[in-house]
Amino acid sequence: MTVTRPSERGGAVWVPVGPRDAAPPERERRRPAYGPWRALWRRYRRDQGAVVGLAVLATIAAIIIAAPLLAAYPPDVPLDIIALKSQPPSWLHPLGTDPVSRDVLSRVLYGGRVSLAIAVLAALTAATVGTLYGAIAGYAGGAVDAIMMRVTDACLSIPRVLLLLTVAALWGRLSIGGLVLVLGFTGWFGVSRIVRGEVLALRDREWAIAARALGAGATRTLLRHILPNVASPIIVAIALGIGNVILLEAGLSFFGVGVQPPQASWGTIMQDGADQVRALWWLTVFPGLAIVTTVMAVHAVADGLRRAADPRSGYGARP
Amino acid sequence: MRSFVVRRLVQAVTVAAAVTTLTFVLIHLAPGDPLAGTMDDPRVAPSVRAHWRQVYGLDRPLPVQYVRFLTGVARGDLGFSVSYNEPVIAVIRRAVPNTLMLAGTALVLSFAAGILIAVIQVRREGTLTDRALGAISLGLYSLPDFWLAQVALLAFSYWLPIFPAGGTIDPVIHPYLGPAAAALDRVRHLVLPAVTLAALTAAWIARFQRAALLDVAADDYLRTARAKGLSEWTILVRHALRNALLPVITLFGLSLSAFVSGAVFVEKVFGWPGIGSVAVDAVGARDYPVIIACTIIGSILVAAGSLIADLLYMLADPRLRRAEGDADGGATSAVAGA
Fold it and tell me: Counting Cβ atoms within 10 Å, is residue B68 exposed (0-12), middle (13-18) or buried (19+)?
């Protein structure tokens, strides 16, 4: 069987060609070349919810970064302790004022900076520690792996909130940096298990063996060859970690063991209204909405990333 | 099978040892020693300080203190609570049944609700119902636990006064109630905190169960069932769910830690006197032996629960009984890595 196609030069002249030439070479060239990140993005953007989540998250990030421009009042300074105490939402104070007459909108904007900064930094800390730990365990294998993973199993059994409360009680007041470290160092157990499993599976692939045969040491093989292939589950873990830490930080701050007043965070704003929830509902509702919106967006992004990276995987646990 | 049981038992003991060691390390990493708060007052004479440090063994070398701490915990000696003015173990003993009651009820509720939601979602896959339930799950999953607890309290205790606002029983009338009314009183107090805690986790379970159901959706036995002319509901519940339940059952042991963690803030908001409330109050009172005991006991509860879950799981799944050699650490650990 033969197929005909117009010749490049003659235009009108039809010449018979074999079936192998049926797909013209031009088509091959027109397909754009793209790497793994581009491929990830192409799969990611098919998921409507994930794209919306990303847009919401980007908007929130932009608003929070621009907080000094958007906030009409300083976040930590009482405006007028008599006249502006505990005012409900109004035109001048769209989210009301708190019991010491601070503008709640300004506090929510600035508090978002604190809450999100803690969440991002703690999640990154957790991911770094977890990746290193998991990579070492998975790459070493054998008894080292067994012992390291038993330790992780044990740590996973400790209710994270109780551990955080212990640290808070022992250290008294935690600075923001301390809070980041504590939240980071209590959040890496899950990541380390994921990374360990992946590294264990990739360790003896042909390309890893080839790298070692060419003289690469363990560190180089891990960092340059194996870990880049584990990037997507780690990124998903970071995203989920950010969501978890936002919730945890809010809880800790709400009960007075996280961010310390007068510094605003979404949790401390709610704490200011905790004893009069019915009367001062705006102190609970608005920071709560900020948290829910942000965490929902974070989870939507994490879901989208997971589906884009590996459409057949399960879901992560709450802290 | 026996080696699996032994290995899991060893693992449970490891948890207890690890959490005890960890808290010991934390205590000694923290600035000052346990007596710093009360003793490092300039008005306290140095000889008095030295005396009490000696009484509590704080002048001994660290390894000695560590062994004393370990043996103390093993004997159930968790120290003395300043804020309760009684041994810590007595405080914990009162609180643990309440936490077990709350977390246990929430656990059952959330698995029932989560699996039900997932089945409905998969039955109507791709429709508005599926998407709406998915969005609600995502929303619930993203709620701060203490915030949901507060809103629930506000809605169903103040605006619509259906349920009592806190505690486990009505302190005024409970002693005068008959057995049935007393039980009802307990249930009424349990509903709000348990449903709040369950709602947060049900969303997570529903998402997991939905994925597991869709995973088996393309399997041959489902095509066979469909070819036999069975109704879609029968296929879904009797055939698909049976197989898709297994990965979700493994969540049982894994989610215990999340339940105890979640229970902490929910308990505090509802004034439920479990170890979560006790721990939060202890932080405020700087009563650190109590909170350390809560952490140790909480972890041991979780370890014991996941041990029981793994053993039950092994009984449920014949494949696990046979494949004992290659599974490391049991069903729960296998999912933790997934």
Answer: middle
Asked if the structure places residue A69 within a domain, the reply is yes
Q: How far is CA A200 from CA A140, B217, B293, in A?
A: 9, 30, 37
Question: What is the Cα–Cα distance from B284 to B260, expressed in whole angstroms?
Answer: 20
Alpha-carbon distances, residue B140 vs A292, B96, B133, B150, B166 (angstroms): 9, 27, 10, 14, 22
Q: CA B212 to CA B219: how far, in whole Å?
A: 12
How many alpha carbons fall within 13 Å on the CB side of residue A193? 22
How close A204 comes to chain B (CA, Å)?
18
CATH number for A73 = 1.10.3720.10
Q: Cα distance from A126 to chain B (closest Cα, Å)?
A: 16
Residue type, A217: G
Nearest CA to A44 out of A235, A292, A293, A294 is that of: A235
> Has residue A13 been placed in a domain?
no
Residue A305: is it exposed, middle or buried by C-beta count within 10 angstroms (0-12/13-18/19+)? buried
- ipTM > 0.90 (yes/no): no
Q: Is residue A41 part of a domain?
A: no
Q: What does the pLDDT profile of chain A (319 residues) look like in tens digits?
A: 444 444 444 444 445 555 555 555 555 555 556 677 777 788 888 888 889 999 999 999 999 998 888 877 888 877 777 777 777 888 888 888 888 888 888 899 999 999 999 999 999 999 999 999 999 999 988 899 988 988 888 888 888 899 898 888 888 778 889 899 999 999 899 899 989 988 988 888 888 889 988 988 888 888 888 888 888 889 888 998 999 999 999 999 988 888 888 888 898 988 888 787 778 888 888 899 999 999 999 988 988 888 887 644 444 333 3
- Measured between CA atoms, the residue of chain A closest to residue B15 is A154
Amino acid found at B23: T
Q: Is the peptide bond before A262 cis (omega within 30 degrees of 0)?
A: yes
Tokens of B176: 């005068």
* Chain pair A-B, CB pairs under 8 angstroms: 192
Task: Flag if A317 and B282 touch (Cβ within 8 Å).
Answer: no
Residue A22 lies in a domain: no
Query: Length of chain B, please?
Result: 338
Inter-residue contact A259 to A176 (CB < 8 Å): yes
In terms of residue numbers, what domain contains A121?
49-316
Q: How many domains does chain A have?
A: 1
Six-digit token string for A215: 């003289």
Q: Which two tokens stand for residue B197?
A: 């805690």
Beta-carbon separation of B258 and A247 below 8 A: no
Q: Are A271 and A254 in contact (CB under 8 A)?
A: yes
